[in-house]
Amino acid sequence: MTPALTTRAAVVEAARLSIAQGSKSFAAASKLFDPATRERAWLLYAWCRRCDDIADGQDHGHGMTQVADPHARLAAMRAMTDAALRGEVVGDPAFDALRIVAGECRIPAAWAHDLLDGFALDADGWRPRTADDLYRYCYHVAGAVGLMMAVVMGVPPDDDATLDRACDLGLAFQLANIARDLMEDASAGRCYLPTDWLTEAGIASGALLVPESRSALAGLGARLATQAELYEASARGGAAALPFRSAWAVLAAAGIYGDIARAVRARGVTALDERVTTSKAAKLGWIARSLEQTAGRGRYVGEGRPAGLWTRPRLQNPLPLLRERERRA
Predict the structure, then answer these.
(1) Can you tell me the mean pLDDT for 176-190?
(2) What is the distance between the alpha carbons of residues 218 and 103, in angstroms, rounded to a whole number?
(3) Which residue segment(s) compose the domain that 243 sits in?
(4) How many structural domains compose the chain?
(5) What is the tens place of the pLDDT at every residue in 279-318?
(6) What is the pTM of this model?
(7) What is the CATH number of the domain that holds 126?
(8) Strand partners, 74
């Protein structure tokens, strides 16, 4: 263990480098937070990024592979996460980042465990059968992160109305990710499209990569993008409950990441050929645009969450519901 990495300043610096390398979109939006919140956002991101990298054999989100030992990797993640949540120095900068931010912000441990349970689904080779299954998975791997990030921004863990919107933003991000990464995921043996959707589209199981599936697959990518926009719109309603700079960062991130989903839909089959990204100019444009949106965020006060959207669980683990549905299928 390197002693310097046990200090808060060193762990924060490692987290800053992690977000700079792992997500230019989130890194740009994070600059809008006040300094204390910004550092804590970096710390939370670093732990999430490291867990994702361990699970997928990646380096800051790049180079997904089919790992040979997914359950062993998951067990290691759980052990280090539990140690961090107990306040123990782990020796891995990303898990020490969790130790610091969870201690400072009193993040409910259940939400950290919910995220790891999403990786458990991947380790088991689980696939969604219905849209409801897809949203539950998205809750695990992204919605729970939205809940933790909301607490970092000062939202009380019992403010269900605001937390619902934070979870919605996580779902929007994850649905955009899935839409963007359809081919990359398929190449790694993964598919997050509900089997019900594949059947409706006439795509046979295991046929995502064949040329004959491209048009139908692009249509499903557009369907995911449309769902992402619905959750993005709902998430914006939570901005009224946030401090100015936090709301600015959230609205900027929503716009920047939302552009990924919108580009996937606009490009059609060509979105399958290369990874969709957003330009630096587009990011700067959203930072400027969201400043005006933040100033007018009071219009969301009293506005209810749109009807019909899937709703997150209330501090309970939805994983058994997924397992039971899988067993009965």
Answers:
(1) 92
(2) 43
(3) 3-328
(4) 1
(5) 999 999 999 999 999 999 888 877 788 889 999 987 655 4
(6) 0.90
(7) 1.10.600.10
(8) none
